Amino acid sequence: MSPYPYPHPAFLPALLPDNIQTQVQRTSKPHYPADYLQKLKPLNSPANKPVEKVAKGLVSVVLAFSLIAARTDFLWIGNSELLDRSAGQRRRKQTVWLRRLLLLESLAECHGMASGLLHHSESVLYNQTSAPPHRMVYALIGEFNSHRTHLLTFLSIAKPVFLTRLILLSTQIVGYFAQGLLCLIYMPLCFQLARYTSEAASRVYADLTKDIDAGEVPDISSHPVPAVSTVFYNLPENATMRLVCQCIKADDVFHACWEDSAAKDHHNATGRMYKMSNGLTH
């Protein structure tokens, strides 16, 4: 397997050169091959440069606070039994899992939307009509749509009350402004933050898959796959939540690799990802 993983087809128009975009066609096959999903490992890259160390440290702090919030019961009172742990102690582990995933995906969404909007604004203000800026905006919005799908998947399972949904939306609004400010101050830091968030997410979903295999989260593993996931990943009718978690992990691994490339040279990131990815020929 090459250093860069198999990308979700939502990213293909952003990665492919203009002269071969028309060759990409949708098929009836799942977007991620089963053998690829089985071999794919979560990422945990070392932070060598100062900007990487700062980004990884900030992500660790934010994820630690989100874990504390996931374990703080009074923040989730009034929700369904899957989210309100006091309603059933036997559901404790999967309750914390769902809370973590809702918070994680709410935060992960922010980078794609904020950075995509800023790159779009740059194109409008400076009349940038060449291919690289266009593909960058497409890739960022594709990343946002990917995390949005992840969030909606677990919202469909957890079914939180309106107040909880409002809290999650407020978290996203704050995240949009914070990410946008970081993009204006220092773009590489913004992309490195998104990179280490995606790496952390890939490890989270790898751990969730292990818990599904161990039978520790039966309400999650036995839940029907939400329609938004079935459409986004082109899954078969008999797909399981385990397969969905593997697909989400694959998304996050690709995001992390792409964001690392974008942090180093965000104007040419999509071109480099095209050359190094081995998944563009499927």
Number of strands: 0
> Helix coverage percent of residues?
55-70%
**Per the principal axes of the C-alpha atoms, what is the gross shape?**
globular
Q: Mean pLDDT across all residues, rounded?
A: 80
- Which stretches of 5+ consecutive residues score pLDDT under 50? 19-26, 269-282
Which series of helices and strands comes N to C? HHHHHHHHHHH
Proportion in β-strands: under 5%
Major beta-sheet overview: none
**What's the gyration radius in Å?**
19 Å
Q: Cα distance, first to last residue?
A: 14 Å
Which structural class is indicated by helix and strand composition?
mainly alpha
Per DSSP, the total helix count is 11
Which characteristics define this entry?
282 residues; mainly alpha
Please, could you describe this protein's structure?
The chain is built from eleven helices and no strands. With 282 residues, it is mainly α. Helix 3 (50-70) packs across helix 4 and helix 10 (241-264) packs across helix 11. The radius of gyration is 19 Å and the shape is globular. It starts with 11 loop residues before the first helix and ends in a 6-residue tail after the last helix. Residues 19-26 and 269-282 have low confidence and may be disordered.
